[in-house]
Write a structure and sequence with these properties.
Elements lengths: L12 E4 L5 H11 L4 E3 L3 H8 L5 E5 L8 H9 L9 E5 L5 H10 L6 E5 L4 H69 L11
Parallel strand pairs: 1-2, 1-3, 3-4, 4-5
Helix pairs in contact: 2-3
Length: 201
């Protein structure tokens, strides 16, 4: 049975947009496009949900005012080597180049961050998310290959150990046989010659 590369939670989109009805509206747009999306109610909740899997994150600029932002960035930095979770950062309309640059610097050690200015069309939103999810699927494929390679290496190492143990047993047995043969030869040389019986005529 082939192992599933990614489950539903691995491909869900986590949404954190604390202002007004942005989050439920985004969720509805994505759901209508067939994309599984979950609304988070704070950075702490979003960070906790990352542990059980995520395909992408939609994060509104206002959410970065939370004191939990460092923990969130820390969780992103702690990702395994195969993982680079796509983050789409929704900035406020007319935020300005300085604000965007400040946000980019805040996430510079995270890597996979796309900045999108609001308001944005539903088609643009779904397109951005689909691109992010395709990127995430490729990452899961890499994870799957790494797991298979690791399993193959472990299996190969176990076979090598089995062969080494078999070799030690066989060689040890051969050495014992050689030693026994030497002892037999030494006993033969040490034994007195058999006396001959002379029969009278």
């Amino acid at each position: 049975m082939q192992k599933t590369i990614a489950g539903p939670e691995d491909l869900r989109v986590l949404i954190l947009a604390p202002t007004g009805q942005d989050a439920p509206l985004i969720q509805r747009v994505l759901s209508d496009a067939g994309i599984f999306a979950v609304v988070c109610h704070g950075l702490r909740e979003l960070t906790d949900m990352l542990r059980s899997g995520a395909g992408a994150v939609l994060l509104a600029q206002e959410a970065l005012q939370s004191k939990e932002v460092e923990a969130f960035i820390g969780a992103l930095q702690a990702q395994p080597s195969w993982s680079d979770l796509p983050i789409t950062l929704l900035t406020l309309g007319g935020a300005g180049q300085r604000t965007i640059q400040s946000i980019s610097e805040q996430f510079q050690k995270v890597g996979n961050v796309t900045v999108v200015e609001r308001p944005l069309h539903a088609l643009t939103l779904t397109s951005v998310v689909r691109v992010a999810l395709r990127s995430r699927v490729r990452q899961y494929e890499v994870r799957h290959l790494v797991e298979r390679l690791t399993a193959s290496q472990t299996e190969l190492q176990e076979k090598i150990h089995d062969l080494e143990r078999f070799h030690d047993v066989v060689v040890g047995r051969e050495l014992k046989m050689i030693e026994l043969e030497k002892q037999v030869e030494e006993l033969k040389r040490a034994a007195p010659p058999a006396s001959k019986t002379i029969q009278g005529s």
